[in-house]
Write a structure and sequence with these properties.
The protein has three domains: 77 residues, SH3 Domains (SH3 type barrels, Roll); 54 residues, SH3 type barrels (Roll); 117 residues, Alpha-Beta Complex (endopeptidase fold (from Nostoc punctiforme)), CATH 3.90.1720. The protein is mainly beta and 274 residues long.
């Protein structure tokens, strides 16, 4: 079992795992939503960041102790610990942020104080409209940055392009910092397409294999050990990379040569979206 996607922390396990693991407690968990703009999900309460969750993300909470909750993310099944203070009661989002980033303001006025930065992909529950803003409970968001839930983006590559220039951050999942797998996941999820959180899981679950050495097509997924990119064209790709510490476009052959030369190996998989 993969600990990243198996809701079991050694003490508490999901009821569905009864008979498969030994745990002190089996439970169905309780539903919650992330109420912070961004929060880390960790392997242990004091462990390193594995991924991040965004405002509005739904989770199942299986265990809470000393300020941390062990959860499973609904959007991709990822498991880990988050700050309990970052969680609130379940809500039903009405809109999602389609802009690369937006601000929450104290009033429906661009000159009012900004209190929170929201990333592309954040889900919010909008209430009233006022002066071109939607009120979301904690403040006001420009209406032009929000799209109703259910009206998703149409092309993952268009979503990925919105992150061009965003800083690279290992384990990051937002416009303020993201890594290679987060870029692919954001591109897919915001088009309503399922996508795991890490590149090896994406390699296993996404697309149809194409023979390595075959010509690339727009939308193809390119996998190395520990890395993934999206082909924009037969000779250009987009990826979040530690090489320039940013989301960039790069000539595919140049990237293949560079990545191999720096010791990270050749392409291990070429997948085509189904």
């Amino acid at each position: 079992m993969d600990s990243r996607t198996t809701p079991f922390n050694g003490r508490v396990a999901a009821s569905a795992l009864r008979g498969q693991v030994e745990a002190e407690i089996f439970c169905d968990g309780t539903q919650a939503n992330v109420i912070a703009a961004l929060t880390d999900i960790r392997r242990a309460p004091d462990g390193p960041r594995l991924r991040q969750l965004l405002l509005g993300d739904a989770v199942t909470v299986y265990d809470t102790d000393q300020g941390y909750s062990y959860v499973q993310s609904t959007k991709d099944g990822y498991c880990g610990y988050v700050s309990s203070a970052a969680l609130g009661p379940p809500t039903e989002p009405t809109h999602w942020v389609h802009a690369r980033a937006t601000h929450v303001y104290t009033d429906a006025n661009i000159k009012s104080a900004d209190t929170m930065l929201l990333s592309l992909g954040v889900r919010v529950t909008a209430k009233d409209e006022k002066n071109g803003f939607l009120e979301i409970g904690t403040g006001y968001v420009p209406k032009q940055h929000l799209t109703p839930v259910g009206q998703m983006a149409q092309n993952p590559l268009d979503v990925a392009r919105q992150f061009l220039g965003a800083p690279y951050l290992w384990g990051g999942n937002s416009s303020t910092g993201l890594d290679c797998s987060a870029l692919v996941q954001a591109a897919y999820l915001n088009c309503g397409l399922p996508c795991p959180g890490d590149s090896d899981l994406q390699c296993a679950e996404l697309g149809t294999p194409v023979d390595i050495g075959s010509p690339f097509q727009s939308g193809d997924l390119l996998f190395w050990t520990g890395h993934v990119a999206l082909a924009l064209s037969p000779d250009t790709m987009i990826h979040a990379t530690a090489h320039p510490m940013a989301v960039v476009t790069e000539n595919i052959q140049a990237a293949l040569d560079r990545i191999n030369a720096q010791g990270d190996g050749p392409l291990i998989a070429h997948k085509r979206p189904e």
